[in-house]
Design brief:
Layout lengths: L3 E2 L5 H4 L15 H37 L13 E3 L3 E4 L2 H12 L4 H15 L9 E8 L4 E7 L26 H12 L4 H14 L1 E2 L2 H14 L3 H7 L11 E2 L2 H13 L1 H5 L2 H12 L6 H6 L3 E3 L2 E5 L2 E5 L6 H11 L12 H21 L10 H4 L2 H9 L24 E6 L5 E7 L9 E2 L4 E2 L28 E5 L2 E8 L4 H14 L5 H6 L3 E2 L6 E4 L5 H10 L2 E4 L10 E7 L4 E6 L6 E4 L1
Parallel strand pairs: 18-19
Antiparallel strand pairs: 1-22, 2-21, 3-11, 3-22, 4-5, 4-12, 5-8, 6-7, 9-10, 10-15, 11-12, 13-14, 15-16, 16-20, 17-18, 20-21
């Protein structure tokens, strides 16, 4: 059997090609650090660059020579097929870790947990031990779907004099990643923590090649990163920001992962790690205590469900955004999107109007179901979708009233991955730190980067801050069933764009019959911040843009494959031909691995 991995935009780093140096110093004398670092690079590249180059060239050769296949449409990245198992994630090392677990006899949960721990190492800006997430899991033996909520929670006691800060220790909520992944493995996996965590431990210890994506995000956030010594130690080990092609090692994180693997999640939430965590918080103005950590639990919830074009959509329940994706699509059920191209002005307008209504209800009604009454039965009813659809006019924009609250600038952070195993078990999960590098703060000596989820509470309403409460999130991992059988697993990052992108992906697959890679790469758009503001990705036809402007939209044009729109991953299950067909997003370092 063979592993098949598709890499995206990593050949630059493999061959030592890097973007221009940014003259930013984390500490010390910049010129001396530069000279020392360049000397070390030359020595390291002589030994290391060839091996990294050959690794990625070998992977590419497997893809090009063994798997080249015609696609439904030209795509930037090739679509991957496999027979037994598949992992699609935001980084090739995470996909590789997951598929190796599948090959070793693990199930989809084992592989997803291995990939999730690994992605926290190699994509430290998007997730990690200091973060949280949501899992949607299809169990092939019982043909049932469950959701695991490991969303972070508010500390029992907070003292914000004015507003919740966007960074620093006071911005952090109680992290859920360790509890969530451990719960999934214990209840639904077949392997133990030491086995599935081993690849992440090794990679944190030995290091990995910094991709252009990671290097860009470090530079974009460096002014904040350098204000925290513990975080600067990770991202600026030589006193300068890591660049594409550098090796990022996190030995403190490797030790933390090793301890969790050996002693389990209790060490993180009740043991020595909890002591260290609480002390750093207390010493730096944070609010998380050991009592907050010891009381944290991941929750197994009933997923939300709805229908679209004869397919059942199953997604993450509140406080996540899965119901909003489903609601938006059920509104769109009343319009014939298939008769026009996906990037036509008519389709974009209809999609935008439906998603505006979904966002309005997301703002008004979605919160932590353990604290608030969420009217899901009404929001996801056919009658309500019909009523909302009747409000939409093909030639008129909605007025300002009733289209949701304006939002501040949101990071395109977070990460998503999907797994399908030999028996047909499926996991789709989304993890996050909220913003890139979360609170821009780390727990010294542990390698753990903290989330800044507290800022995602609202000033009032169903999402208002309360002790122990889970804040609202757009996270929306989704499984699509066709005639009761799994058809697709979808997930994406991208803050509020998660909701719009997931709806666009579903429409691309079900309305426009795209392949999964084509569906992922199709140009995206997003409307929420204002009733007429529409953010559009390069690639949408000029005549479409002209028509949208005539309709009254104020367009904000973004780049080609713009990371603002997040990074989507997906797997389609072709039951008739016993195939798994995977796609991953070139907007980030997306990769598919299968065997």
């Amino acid at each position: 059997m063979r592993i098949i991995v598709r890499t995206v935009d990593l050949f630059q780093s493999a061959f030592g090609l890097r973007p221009p140096r940014y003259a930013i110093s984390c500490q010390g004398n910049r010129d001396q650090h530069r000279r020392d670092k360049e000397d070390r690079k030359r020595n390291r590249l002589c030994v290391g660059a060839l091996s990294h180059s050959l690794r990625f060239v070998g992977i590419a050769a497997v893809v090009l020579l063994v798997l080249w296949q015609p696609l439904q449409a030209a795509t930037k990245s090739i679509q991957i097929e496999a027979v037994h198992g598949m992992v699609a994630s935001a980084h090739p090392l995470a996909s590789e870790a997951g598929v190796n677990i599948l090959k070793a006899g693990g199930n989809a949960v084992d592989a997803a947990v291995a990939a999730a721990f690994m992605i926290g190492v190699v994509e430290p800006y998007g997730s990690g031990l200091g973060g949280e997430g949501m899992i949607v899991l299809y169990r092939a033996d019982t043909k049932t779907v469950v959701a695991i909520d490991y969303r972070s929670t508010a500390p029992a006691v907070t003292n914000y004099s004015k507003m919740i800060p966007k960074m620093g220790y006071a911005a952090a909520a109680v992290p859920g990643t360790v509890a969530g992944l451990s719960t999934a493995l214990e209840k639904y996996g077949t392997m133990k923590l030491p086995r599935v965590m081993a690849p992440a431990i090794l990679r944190a210890e030995q290091g990995f090649t910094v991709s252009p994506t990671l290097a860009r995000i470090i530079v974009d956030t460096i002014a904040d990163v350098v204000q925290n010594d513990a975080l600067a130690k990770i991202l600026c080990p030589d006193g300068l920001p890591l660049e594409a092609g550098d090796i990022l090692k996190n030995p403190d994180l490797a030790l933390t992962l090793r301890l969790i693997a050996a002693y389990g999640p209790d060490l993180f939430y009740r043991g020595e790690l909890a002591d260290a965590f609480a002390k750093v918080m207390a010493d730096n103005g944070g609010f998380i205590t050991k009592a907050d950590l010891s009381s944290y639990k991941a929750i197994i919830r009933k997923p939300v469900r709805g229908m679209y074009r004869g397919h059942e959509l199953v997604s993450a329940p509140p406080p996540s955004g899965g119901s909003t994706v489903i609601q938006s699509l059920q509104i769109l059920e009343h319009f014939d999107l298939a008769k026009n191209p996906p990037t036509s002005s008519s389709n974009i307008h209809l999609m935008t109007e439906a998603m505006k209504r979904g966002f309005a209800d997301f703002t008004a009604f979605i919160g932590d179901p353990d604290f608030e009454r969420i009217p899901l039965d009404n929001l996801l009813s056919e009658a309500y979708a019909k009523k909302r659809a009747a409000e939409i006019r093909a030639d008129i924009l909605s007025p300002a009233a009733g289209v949701g609250e304006p939002k501040t600038r949101e990071s395109g952070s977070t990460t998503a991955l999907c797994v399908v195993d030999r028996k047909g078990n499926i996991v789709t999960l989304t993890q996050t730190l909220s913003d890139f590098f979360g609170a821009k703060a780390a727990i010294a000596g542990t390698g753990i980067i903290l989330n800044n989820e507290m800022r995602n509470f609202s000033n009032g309403g169903v999402n208002a801050l309360k002790p122990g409460k889970r804040m609202r999130t757009a996270i929306s991992p989704m499984i699509v069933l066709r005639n009761g059988k799994p058809f697709a697993a979808l997930g994406t990052s991208g803050a509020a764009r998660i909701i719009s992108t997931t709806a666009i992906l579903a429409s691309n697959l079900l309305d426009h019959k795209m392949g999964i890679q084509e569906a992922i790469e199709s140009p995206r758009y997003f409307a929420r911040d204002a009733p007429n503001e529409l953010q559009v990705e390069k690639g949408i036809p000029h005549d479409t843009l002209d028509a949208l402007e005539r309709l009254g939209y104020s367009l904000k044009q973004r780049g080609d494959y713009d990371p603002f729109f997040g990074g989507a991953q997906g797997i389609v299950i072709d039951s008739d031909n016993h195939k798994r067909i995977g796609g991953a997003d070139p907007r980030r370092d997306g990769a598919v691995a299968g065997y």
